[in-house]
Amino acid sequence: MSVQYIVELFGTFFFAISGALAVKDSEHDWFGASFMGFITAIGGGSLRDILLGSYPLVWVGDINFLYAIIAGVIAAKIFFRLLERLRRTFLLFDTLGISLFTIVGLEKALSLGVQPEIAAIMGMFTAVMGGVIRDTLVNETPVIFRKEVYASACLAGAVCYLLLNASVHLDRELNALLSAGLIVGIRLLAVRYNLSLPRFL
Amino acid sequence: MSVQYIVELFGTFFFAISGALAVKDSEHDWFGASFMGFITAIGGGSLRDILLGSYPLVWVGDINFLYAIIAGVIAAKIFFRLLERLRRTFLLFDTLGISLFTIVGLEKALSLGVQPEIAAIMGMFTAVMGGVIRDTLVNETPVIFRKEVYASACLAGAVCYLLLNASVHLDRELNALLSAGLIVGIRLLAVRYNLSLPRFL
Amino acid sequence: MSVQYIVELFGTFFFAISGALAVKDSEHDWFGASFMGFITAIGGGSLRDILLGSYPLVWVGDINFLYAIIAGVIAAKIFFRLLERLRRTFLLFDTLGISLFTIVGLEKALSLGVQPEIAAIMGMFTAVMGGVIRDTLVNETPVIFRKEVYASACLAGAVCYLLLNASVHLDRELNALLSAGLIVGIRLLAVRYNLSLPRFL
Question: Record's family (chains A, B, C) (predicted)?
Answer without folding.
Answer: Belongs to the UPF0126 family.
